[in-house]
Specification:
mainly beta; Immunoglobulin-like; 1 helix; 10 strands; 8% helix; globular; binds copper (II) ion
Length: 143
């Protein structure tokens, strides 16, 4: 079963983590997935105040989350797994359809538009310090 947080829980999570928020996360969403499918994708824009990398992602909605890039070679779409997504200080890094994305593998259930999914993002800075950030992503139909 996918863990769906109610509005009140979302609100208190936002307040609890705001003080530690190092990376600004915006335009974040999860693509709705029909029942029976085991793979999904999540998108967001990340802006880190300092050089760091997105190194690990976790969600109760999926068994594994991978960072993927997507490229077109001879009209063939290719996805590649990245060990980390580098973030440059003050620059927007866009994860969007057709480009970088978070690949959700081994989905625990259908992802229904209108619901929400919690994610934990782990960032590593140049001094190898790891920080975690919680985000709640809305599930939307791709358009
Ligand atoms: Cu992918």
């Amino acid at each position: 079963m996918i863990k769906i947080l109610k509005f009140t829980a979302v609100f208190s999570l936002l307040i609890a983590f705001e003080a530690h928020a190092a990376v600004v996360i915006s335009d974040s969403w999860v693509r709705a997935v029909a029942p029976g499918q085991s793979v999904g994708a999540a998108y967001m824009t990340l802006k880190s105040p300092k050089d760091s990398s997105l190194v690990y992602i976790e969600t109760p909605a999926a068994g594994t989350v991978e960072i993927h890039s997507m490229t077109m070679t001879n009209n063939v779409m290719k996805m590649r797994k990245l060990e980390a997504l580098p973030l440059h200080a003050g620059k927007l890094e866009n994860l969007s359809p057709g480009g970088f994305h978070l690949m959700l593998l081994d989905l625990k259930g259908p992802l229904k538009a209108g619901s929400k999914v919690a994610f934990t993002l782990c960032f590593k800075d140049k001094a190898n310090k790891i920080t975690h950030q919680e985000v709640i992503l809305p599930i939307k139909e791709a358009n």
